[in-house]
Design goal:
Distance between the termini: 16 Å
Strand order of the largest sheet: 3-2-1-7-19
Number of strands: 21
Low-confidence stretches: none
Radius of gyration: 23 Å
Largest sheet: 5 strands, parallel
Shape: globular
Number of helices: 12
Mean pLDDT: 93
Helix content: 25-40%
């Protein structure tokens, strides 16, 4: 029986583990660096943390959640759902907690992966699946003097719940997807909140509301409606589309309706095409900016001083606490793990100019290595869970054929990977993501994070295994 190891315990890991176990692949183990299951939904506990995908769409198709209390669920409910799913499908007992993997080496003679742990020791499996995702490593900005600040400071993904912010002067660096969720809560607690904005966002009004208990049995029927909305929303991210123009008009209307001050409104107006950076959803961010005890600063931060943050105009904005909502190392992929393939080939070296993989999952030179939520599988619209399930089904098909043919190794061919990558990059060239700087792009210019367009084409591309794309041995 093929032994399978999965790195992580978030949505990608659980989707894959359930798919494999349901189809007779019983020798499955999961390694989790933390002492608890949950991935990003375990780690991101900042006030207001939640999902910008509608709740009816944000659950597994094999375990549709009928208990959502809101149309946009918050972190506690999402984490609870994920853990219940792991329990109900027998995955939790398979997780080895406090096992952070720092290395993975292909042992050619034995045709196995040997993984090494941060605490010492190793383990071996026939097939290694990475489910660490794209947004797991918090990133602090490279601002001079960041260690000189005399007050408290932390990243939003490492929220200091022990720190009482009441009556404090709080500086929030970054106003992206996380910040627009926690900024309204900070404003309620702090004496004064200063928001430092590097670039303005397109913000769409959030169609959020409580879901009455009597309606929750209808949640499975809502999924189709929200899925269709997400597919159309994704199509609006191609250049010059009618859908894109309609979304832009709604965002513009939302800004003009919500912000009265002309100067503030101008500062909050994006200067790049819709969707080039992540479109955000919020009903309470603009009202927060309107508050008299909240300042919006659009000047660039030049350095951190012991007293606060200095901007390009020479002003030092004093603060007691700094919160960095500066995102994650989205180009990391698997750089945090020393992965060595055939002939000593380093994955980090192979991906030095940006990660790429066949179907976002398979890399030439690295047999029996699968990647969930890998290169070019992130979305601008729709639910990532739909993508993760499609990937899990394809991985399972590969393993089914591997076992049926009594082969020991499977490896995507360089030709198949190259042709797939060329098609994806060509399609991405017609999207808005190449029109400005964003976290989807590697410094080389390659768009490594996102899948071009809607989710259905990816599901079709992964529905059936093409054996000719792989070498079996």
């Amino acid at each position: 029986m093929t032994s399978i190891g999965i790195i992580g315990s978030g949505f990608g890991a659980i989707a894959t583990a359930v798919e494999l176990r349901d189809h007779g692949h019983d020798d499955v183990r999961l390694w989790e660096r933390s002492s608890e299951l949950g991935g990003v939904w375990r780690d991101n506990t900042y006030p207001g943390a939640g999902c910008d995908v509608p709740s009816p769409l944000y659950s597994f198709s094999f375990n549709v959640n009928k208990d959502w209390s809101r149309r946009y669920a918050l972190q506690v409910e999402i984490l609870d759902y994920l853990r219940r799913t792991a329990d109900d499908f027998g995955i939790t007992p398979l997780v080895r907690f406090d096992h952070e993997i720092v290395s993975a080496h292909w042992i050619e003679d034995d045709r196995q992966w040997e993984v090494g742990f941060a605490a010492g020791g190793t383990d071996r499996v026939d097939v290694l699946i990475s489910a660490v995702g794209q947004l797991s490593r918090p990133k602090l900005p490279p601002i001079p003097g960041i260690d000189d600040f005399a007050g408290e400071q932390f990243h939003s993904a490492e929220w200091r719940h022990d720190l009482d912010l009441t009556g404090k002067r709080v500086a929030a660096v970054g106003v992206g997807a996380s910040a627009i969720q926690y900024a309204p809560h900070l404003a309620e607690r702090a004496e004064h909140l200063t928001l430092f904005q590097r670039s303005a966002n397109h913000i769409f009004p959030k169609p959020d509301s409580a879901i009455p208990r009597w309606w929750r049995q209808a949640i499975p029927y809502e999924r189709g409606l929200w899925w269709t909305f997400g597919e159309q929303f994704s199509r609006g991210l191609d250049l010059g589309t009618r859908t894109g123009r309609a979304i832009a008009k709604v965002c513009d209307w939302h800004l003009k309706k919500s912000v009265d001050d002309p100067e503030t409104r101008a500062a909050l107006t994006p200067d790049y095409p819709l969707g080039c950076k992540r479109i955000l959803f919020s009903n309470n961010f603009y009202p927060t900016v309107n508050r008299s005890d909240v300042d919006l600063v659009a000047d660039a931060i030049t350095r951190v001083t012991p007293e606060g943050l200095e901007t390009a105009d020479g002003t030092v904005h004093e603060a007691d606490v700094i919160v960095y909502g500066t995102g994650f190392d989205a180009q990391d992929f698997l750089d945090s793990i020393d992965i060595t393939g055939v002939g000593g080939r380093k994955l980090a070296a192979q991906w030095a100019d940006g990660a790429h993989a066949y179907l976002g999952m398979y890399v030439p030179g690295f047999p029996n290595l699968f990647v969930s939520y890998g290169p070019n599988t992130n979305l601008g619209g729709g639910s990532i869970i739909y993508m993760l399930e499609a990937q899990a089904r394809h991985m399972r098909q590969v393993l089914d054929r591997l076992d049926a043919g009594r082969w020991e190794t499977v490896e995507v061919t360089e030709e198949a990977e190259r042709e797939f990558d060329e098609r994806v990059q060509k399609r991405l060239g017609l999207s808005v993501w190449g029109q400005c700087d964003n976290w989807y792009r590697h410094p080389s210019g390659r768009i490594t994070s996102n899948w071009p367009g809607s989710t259905k084409p990816f599901e079709r591309a992964t529905r059936h295994l093409d054996p000719e794309a792989f070498a079996w041995a």
